[in-house]
Amino acid sequence: MPLEEHRAVLAKYSWLPDVFRINGSVIPHVLGPVLTVTVFAALIAAVDRHTSVDIKLSNNVVPLLSVVVGLILVFRNGTSYDRYYEGRKDLATLTSQTRNLARLIWINVAAPTPTGTDSSKSSPKVQRKITKLKIRALRLLIAFPRSVVHHLRQENGSESLEETRILTEQLQDRARIDTYRKRSRAGTGASGYGTTSEVTSPVRGKETPSRSNSVESNATATRAINQETPLLVDVERQEEVEIHIDHHPMIQNMPLTIAHELTRMIWKFKRAGMLDTVGPAGTNAMTGSIQIMVDMLTAMERVSNTPIPASYGIHLKQCVTLYLFALPFTMVKDMGYGMIPIVTVVAFTLMGIEGIANQIEMPFGKDMDDLPLEKYCDEMQRDIEYVMDYLPQGDEEDGFMQDMPQDDDDDAVTF
């Protein structure tokens, strides 16, 4: 399916459908308080009409309250929308850094040049191994924004989350290696282990080569690569270690754990010589992207964990209630029962503004008015899967440069 079909399509501007729309409006949220004010206004009108009790108030009372109520409502609504918009900006920055890091890993990570060997003649099995490592990194990158969403919502059902499954593979590998090290120290393990084990199929659902496609090159080139790139060396013997996700300490903060694993992979790429082409600047760019991703996580945590002060919300509702309860006393003399719909409209307007502010002040929930976080995560996943499925790697022949017209002086330049 083309990517364009997944993009949000702006609806045509229409007025009347939104006027009569209940789903998605603030009406269900404020219906009870509005009806309460309406019943109170009807009671005041009935008392004024059928009794001799003088319950009328001067019109000078309402302006005194209306100014205060208006200022408080404007500030309340503006503060809530600032939180909503800040959350959207943080998500946009997270999306940008995720795309950038996926592109940098896919292009910059390449097989190191063994001593005395042309880099263009790297073993195809080595290339496949590096591709699987990059796919693993990009799968963790896909899992990061979804883990941020579940973290902000305080959803701890980690056993059903895709990002947990992806991260579990990393933890399983680490547990196998730790077990192997212990057995090696005891004299029961094999020699020559690496830090990377089997990589399962990527999120895109395609099968990847199994363990039988491990790095097996010939003679000197293989030894040189193994010495310089321990990341490419297979473990000859592994112990199956079961990871209990619900009790594993690394799963308690999923986004930070994924960021940690991504940073470790970049460090291993650097140590293995897979980032020699881009040098320290390229490595710093990738680690800088991860740093910004963590910064955006912290910024969204600030929005999520900083509620509006309770005293402010209480005082706002008290002022609005006093204003609406005072309104019938000032209008009953001139309008009688006719003031009931007027009071209802005013109550709906003021309470609706406060209700909207209450709904958008926490933008990371699952309500209709909250940010469509799942949509943003799906979009990031499609973008990264598009990179893995269709875009060439940095050292991969794509035919683009070869098809360019060349001059005589271009013979010395090889792409």
UniProtKB/TrEMBL annotation:
Q: Give an example GO cellular component term for this record.
A: membrane
As for membrane topology, the entry says: Multi-pass membrane protein
From the UniProt entry, list the residue stretches annotated as the region Disordered.
Answer: 181-223
Task: Please indicate which superkingdom the organism of origin belongs to.
Answer: Eukaryota
Q: Which InterPro entries match?
A: YneE/VCCN1/2-like (IPR044669)
Q: Where is the composition biased (Polar residues)?
A: 210-223
Q: Where in the cell is it found?
A: Membrane
The record lists the membrane-crossing segments as: 26-45, 57-75
Q: Which UniProt keyword terms apply here?
A: Ion transport, Membrane, Transmembrane, Transmembrane helix, Transport
Record protein name field: UPF0187-domain-containing protein
